[in-house]
Amino acid sequence: MRLTLAFAVAPRRAAQVVFEAPDGASVQQALDALRAQQPQLAAQLAPLIATGGVGLHGQRAAPAQVLQDGERLDVAAPLITTPQQARQRRFEVQGARTAGLFARRRPGAKPGY
Known about the structure:
The protein is of the alpha+beta class. It has helices spanning about 25-35, 40-50, 85-95, and strands at about 1-10, 15-20, 55, 60, 70-75. It contains 3 helices and 5 strands; from the N terminus they run E-E-H-H-E-E-E-H. Helix 1 runs antiparallel to helix 2. It is elongated.
């Protein structure tokens, strides 16, 4: 069966690789097949797989999960920062006056409108 492996090559840049795996293969068997077919790519992705994991349809995939033909595996890197920390940093950079839903209002408009 043909599977697609999607991964990030750099921030905001993704790549996809199509590879063959045995019919009825699990996630672990598919990754083993990728290692056999493309050892350099598998070595490059090994740290990401170990720390971030592999996903299927936007959900974390268990190594024993059985795959179907045409599915896409996603290799995710671990988060560098949490979404809450990212919001706090943006607020610190923007300041209190320019952050938020009503930051750009008409001149003379009431606060909150």
